[in-house]
Amino acid sequence: MNIFSRHEKRLLGGIGLVIAMRTLGFSILVPVFSIYSVTMQGATETLAGVAVGIFALAQTLLQVPMGRLSDIWGRKQATLLGLGIYMAGTLLGGISQDVYQLIASRALAGAGAVSGVTIAWLTDGIPLDKRNAALSYVGVSIGFSVIIGFTVSPLLAGNFGIPFLFYVSAFLIFLLILYIFCYLNNHGTVEPYEGREKTVRPGELFFNRDLMRINLLGFVANFSLAGVFFVMPLLIRRYMEIVAMWRIFVPVALIGTACMFYFGNKADRLGTVRIASVGILMGAGGLLLPVLIGGLTSYFASFVLFYSGYCILSPLMPAAVSRYPDSQRKGTVLGMLNSFQFIGSAAGGVMGGVMMRFRPELFFCLLSLLLFLSLVFLLGFRDYRGMCGEGPATS
Fold first, then answer.
1. What is the mean predicted confidence (pLDDT) over 356-364?
2. What is the pTM of this model?
3. CA distance 54 to 351
4. Is the distance from CB of 174 to CB of 304 less than 8 angstroms?
5. Residue 280 within any structural domain of the chain
6. Does 385 reside within a domain?
7. With b meaning 16 or more CB within 10 Å and e meaning fewer, what string describes 122-146?
8. How confident is the model at residue 98 (pLDDT cuts 50, 70, 90)?
9. Structural domain containing residue 68
10. Is the pLDDT score of 167 beyond 90?
11. Range of lowest pLDDT (39-53, 180-194, 214-228, 260-274)
12. Nearest to 309 by CA among 342, 250, 345, 263
């Protein structure tokens, strides 16, 4: 982290911890959630998919309002509000008795939509030419959280039951709320481009072609992620018990984290499109493996390639969006990206539940095709050049 000043290092450490802890609370639930939801009273595979998707749908509806609230009220205040809502919903998830209560609890948890707010909080204090690197460091902390979550999740679920994971997740969020309240503060914004037009009407953001390219990539990437994380654990469950599934999830998380860090550091130099192309092609190629070859080995290899590709994309998208040349709309544009991502997650979770009733291989073919199409659309990304003067030279 020698490229960062002392202030930037403190900012990276503080916000990185916030994002990592929230990710840990979430990732503890992810590996076994589809297995849990299909066993709830009144559940069908479609309703189980709704339980996955409703969380993302609630996030979708509130990302932009929470981002705009953070622009006006402050990043810290909006983050605390969102985390409190998320914690309440997670606690209710642990005491749910049927699939409908589970769906309602996940909708409430999803209303704590602070993903875009925390990224905006981070990029407020990081200059443009360091943002991909900064987000790759944060991505490493996310990766380690995922590794820990994916490791302990099957072990805790196998020994204490899946509802126990909801209580662990809620307790982690409670600790995070205390940390933010006591130790973190709002701070000034690093202005991205001196002399540029500062005010853009909110309606114009939706029609900006560069933003739309990244937003649609976010939709497709998260559609695929939610679908894969619904389908894959159910397929792997046919070959091993829940308590042993960490042997699959840990290598997946380790390799994905390594790819995120390696390619994230290269993105500032090589550009968004080049590095994103690598991630998209890895993800799309990995999803074709189960179509061509069946069995546990094929599922594992597919999981590794797909998740590594997603990890490459994960820091690139918010870094690209954060360069939008209107610092007063940063929370809004990042909230918009997160809305598209969570729309994708909602649709992917529901579609995964539907496709499990038919042939999962067809679902993997669909996801691979969508990723290829997103790559074609992304090739026109120009990093906001020509919008308000000259933008970054690298795309």
1. 83
2. 0.75
3. 12
4. no
5. yes
6. no
7. bbbbbebebbbbbbbbbbbbbbbbb
8. very high
9. 6-186+205-378
10. yes
11. 180-194
12. 263
